[in-house]
Amino acid sequence: MTNQMDHEDWAVSEYVRRRTVRILNFTDKAAGGTGVKVNAEGRFFIATCAHVMPDGHEIRLLVPNRSSAFIRSFRRRDDDARLDLGLLEISHADAQLLGGSFVDEIATNITFDDEWKTVVCGYPGQMIAISEKRSETTLVRTYDFRSMVFFSGMVPESEWPTHGFERPVVKDAELFVHFSASAELEQVNLLNRRQHWQRATWGSLIPPE
Fold this sequence. Notes:
Elements: H1 7-17, E1 20-25, E2 33-40, E3 43-48, E4 59-62, E5 70-71, E6 76-80, E7 85-90, H2 92-98, E8 117-122, E9 129-134, E10 138-146, E11 148-153, H3 183-193, E12 197-205
Antiparallel strand pairs: 1-2, 1-4, 2-3, 3-7, 4-5, 6-7, 8-11, 9-10, 10-12
């Protein structure tokens, strides 16, 4: 991977970005994660990880390009802790509000030993920029979220690591991708070339002195 991405890579990154959404955790605002928008025969879902939507936490979806606009109610909310998979079902109206595009074709016959190219797109917590503005009675804290794209390749199943995990690897649901020590710097350089900002703002009262 280099800092000069070709037209094919940009097309793929834009395809992926339009099908992802930022998931906010209003119980733990430093948490949250990324979801994939899925259209399954006219029903609309956000597929994510179970740890992104913990039980008892208030979860919302950030509506792109609309400051402080959220989707906060879901038709269904299911998760599987063993597979670390989570699923949020949203209404047709909320799907239209999110805009972008939804995945409507899901491949189920992937062979991990093939040389697949992978694109990872999301909103890492490490990239959240937090700023504050105070008045006499109010503190407004602004969270800025940036999508980040990383290009890599899948690790063949025969080369998967066998230890060092908190839980066993589930081969039917997980995969490994190559990652280099310099990749983080390269990702930051990519962001400097093209940025997609999404902003959410919360205000809280400050007790008078």
